[in-house]
């Protein structure tokens, strides 16, 4: 399991066309590791303009990490929530 935090990390591994804004939280098959998941960099949460926006982004970030935990701990219900085909 590899977790990419932010667009720079994700694009370095998954290609320049990868967009965290539209593809975050998806499990992606990769020839290097069984699963890759990209999400926002935590600093982007802090840069949100309002506390409501920060809370909403933190909830999305937490949901992304719950998917990772589901994969690592074998919880199919968490891991299977969002997945994508091999790239």
Explain what the structure shows.
There is one protein chain. The protein is mainly alpha-helical and 87 residues long. 49% of the residues lie in helices and 11% in strands. It has one domain. The protein has helices at residues 7-14, 20-23, 42-46, 51-72, 76-79; strands at 2-5, 27-28, 36-39. A three-stranded mixed beta sheet has the order 1-3-2, sandwiched between helices. The two termini are 15 Å apart. One of its GO terms (biological process) is DNA repair. This is Uracil-DNA glycosylase-like domain-containing protein. It comes from Nannocystis pusilla.
Summarize the structure.
The protein is mainly α and 87 residues long. Helix content is 49%, strand content 11%.
Keywords summarizing the entry:
deaminated base DNA N-glycosylase activity; 87 residues; 3 strands; Uracil-DNA_glycosylase-like; DNA repair; single chain; 4Fe-4S; 5 helices; UDG_Type-4/5; mainly alpha
Element-level helix/strand string: EHHEEHHH
How many H/I helical runs?
5
Number of domains: 1
Instruction: Output the strand order for the largest sheet.
Output: 1-3-2
Q: What's the end-to-end separation, in Å?
A: 15 Å
Residues in helix, %: 40-55%
